[in-house]
Design a protein that fits this description.
The chain is α+β, with helices and mostly antiparallel strands and 95 residues long. The protein has a single domain, classed as 2-Layer Sandwich (Alpha-Beta Plaits). Helix content is 36%, strand content 27%. The chain contains two helices and three strands; from the N terminus they run E-H-E-H-E. Strands 2-1-3 form a three-stranded antiparallel beta sheet. Helix 1 runs antiparallel to helix 2. It is elongated.
């Protein structure tokens, strides 16, 4: 089990589309919540996730899956994401 800090910013693709709020809500509800999502600041872009894994490859695949699903969800609302994931175990690993 590993706790990670996720910075996940959701933005509209351009100034003529709207959907950032709906995209963010969908990502939180369907992509992040299964990983015991915690959100320190209600309006912030930071999240804490708890990931279960068996090996380093398993961990990498889980993180890349989360980011891919978040991007795909954002894309369906005409948005994009900016993200950064850091391990909170003192190892300074990041994705």
């Amino acid at each position: 089990m590993l706790k990670v800090a996720l910075y996940l910013r959701v933005e509209n693709n351009n100034k003529f589309v709207r959907g950032k709020t709906r995209a963010r809500r969908a990502i939180e509800d369907f992509v992040l919540r299964p990983y015991a999502m915690e959100k320190p600041d209600k309006n912030g872009w930071d999240y804490l996730l708890t990931l279960l894994y068996q090996s380093q490859d398993d961990l990498d695949n889980t993180i890349y899956e989360i980011l891919q699903e978040a991007q795909s969800t954002a894309d369906s609302y005409n948005c994009f994401i900016e993200s950064d994931v850091r391990a909170l175990d003192g190892s300074e690993r990041s994705w």
